Amino acid sequence: MAYEREQAIREFRRWSAGYDRSILQKLLFGPAHRAMIARIQHHFGDRPTSILDVGCGTGVFATLIRGILPRATVWGVDLVADMLAGGRERWRALGGRAAPIQADSERLPFPAGVFDVVACANSFHHYPHQERAVAEMHRVLKPGGKLLLVDGYRDIPWGWFIYDLCVAAIEGDVRHVSARGARDLLDQAGFVNVNQNVHGMLAPFLLTEGAADPPAGLRVPRFRDAVAAAAPG
Q1: Are the beta carbons of 206 and 156 closer than 8 angstroms?
Q2: Cα(205)–Cα(180) distance, rounded to whole angstroms?
Q3: CB-side exposure of 203: number of CA atoms within 13 Å?
Q4: How many domains does the chain have?
C-alpha cells in the first residue's frame, strides 16, 4: 500500500503535541541538525546565507541555525499547521530572520534559484513522491547552492530493524531510501558533486549532499524579492 499525503498529515498532527519532548530530539534530530550546520559552515562560513528548512516542524532546527549562524536567514515549510503552531513562540522569538510557511514539499512556494541551502532533516521518509520533492529542492536553489538531506540509514542490519521494521510499524508505509536510492534521486534531479556520510550508532542516519547545477541563463531573483513573492497575501 502506497504512503499518501493524508497519512503524513495524520501522523504529524498526532505527533505535534509531544514533538519537542520526544527522545528522538536527543537521539536523532539533534545530532542530525548539528551535522548539517557543520556542513553549512564548511561551505559558507559565517557569511549571510539564505536557508530553506523543508519539514521544519516546530522550528527547532531554525533556532539552532540562528544561534550558531546569526547572519543566516531561515525560511521553514511544513505540511502540517499543527506542527508550525507548536513552535509559535519559538518562531516569534526568532523575529524577522526566520519565518514559517505551511506548504507542500512537492510545491514549494518560492521562485527558482533563491536559496543558498535547502535542508531536509528526518522527514523525507514521509514524502509520498520523493522524486518530486527533490526536484523542487533543486529548483529553488541558487546555482551552486547545496542540498543537505538527512534521513535514517537503513542499509545495515540495525538500521533496517529500526527504520524498516520498527518505524514503519508505528508510522505506516513510510520509505527510508537506501544510500543508492538517495544518490539516484539527486542525480535524476540534476544535482552534481553528490556525496554521503553515515553518522551515529544507536540511531544511524545518512547525510546526502549535492550541489545545484541549473540550466544556463537562469535568472536568479534576489532573496528579498523571493520572500515578497512567497509571503501570504
Answers
A1: no
A2: 14
A3: 16
A4: 1
Cell numbers standing for residue 73: 536567514
Q: What is the tens place of the pLDDT at every residue in 142-197?
A: 999 999 999 999 999 999 999 999 988 887 788 999 999 999 999 999 999 999 99
Residue among 216, 19, 18 nearest 122 (CA):
19
In angstroms and rounded to an integer, the radius of gyration of the C-alpha atoms of the chain is 16
Where in the sequence is the domain holding 27, given as residue range(s)?
Answer: 5-230
Q: Are 39 and 19 in contact (CB under 8 A)?
A: no
pLDDT at 17: 58
Using CA atoms, how far residue 2 sits from 120, 137, 173, 175, in Å, is 22, 23, 7, 10
Q: Coil, strand, or helix at residue 78? A: strand
Average pLDDT in the 64-83 region? 92
Looking at residue 59, which CATH number applies to its domain?
3.40.50.150
User: Which residue in this structure is represented by grid cell 505506516?
Assistant: 172
Question: How many Cβ atoms sit within 10 Å of the Cβ of residue 6?
Answer: 9
Cα gap 204→158, rounded to integer Å: 9
Rounded to 10 degrees, what is the CA torsion of 153, 22, 53, 41? Answer: -70
Q: Give the separation between CA 29 and CA 201, rounded to whole angstroms.
A: 13
